[in-house]
Amino acid sequence: MQTFSGVSVVNALPSWYGSTMAIDLRVEVKIEETKECKKYNNALIDAILDFFYTSYKIPCLDVKVFSQIPEKSGLKSSSAVSTALIGEIAKKYNIEIDVPKYSAILSLKAGVSYTGAFDDAVASYYGGVSFTYNKEFKILEIQHPPEVSIILLPRGNRKINIDLSNIRKYRLIFEEIFKISRKDIITGMKLNGILIAHILGYETKEIEEALQKGALASGISGNGPSVFAVTKIGEEGPIIDAWSKYGNVIVTKAVDYVSRY
User: Fold this and answer.
1) End-to-end CA distance of the chain
2) DSSP secondary-structure letter at 146?
3) pTM more than 0.90
4) How far apart are CA 193 and CA 161, in angstroms?
5) Strand 129-133 to strand 227-232: parallel, antiparallel, or no bridges (unpaired)?
6) Do 129 and 6 form a contact (C-beta atoms < 8 A)?
7) pLDDT by residue (tens digit) across 69-85?
8) What confidence tier does 259 reach under pLDDT thresholds 50, 70, 90?
9) Under DSSP, is residue 242 helix (H, G, I), strand (E, B) or coil?
10) CA 61 to CA 143: how far, in whole Å?
11) For the CA atoms of 108, 112, 118, 122, what is the dihedral angle to 10 degrees?
């Protein structure tokens, strides 16, 4: 099964309200039955396999992950892998299960997420722009994405420490950004991306350059360290030129809703 990367519209850490836009970087997971169960040195994959072994008595599986997304990058790699793996197991063994919800539950169990990243899981699995209340694993809506280009400075191996008590001081601000985002996705992305960069202590020079070069929005995705910019289609050039000195630049697009039924 294939699932999608994403960029943040609203970070869910401050208020539990989160929003993610699916983008066209993909993860594919393939599974095969094997005689011996093994550990994958990956807490999330191991938690998912343990859950299905225990709850549904599925056999041991060999799991192969093919990913275009750097790990610990803020581009939703964990949610993409978990939804792809859960979805593939459910499909193969005809198990009815709420894939994004169990992605979030098992992400919490594995200790790889602070909120379960339910907004990320919904966007990874279904595409579009998710709006969720992560504390209750509740989908408020999935919107069609705007017709824009997404430019990325993908960076992996996040090293910052997340101070939840500090981030949650900003709950009311992020609740307002969430409300704005449901009416205006791009403005929400811009406000969230800049504010998260400052709260988490990232430098903002790439963000400022992108905005000066005409980006509709720019900021840190997730908890970083990847930086994104949003432009009108055909207006990517100045930002690509500005960012090329910082590393590999990827231009991609938003992914619309995908029916899984």
Assistant:
1) 13
2) P
3) yes
4) 18
5) unpaired
6) no
7) 887 788 999 999 999 99
8) confident
9) helix
10) 35
11) -130
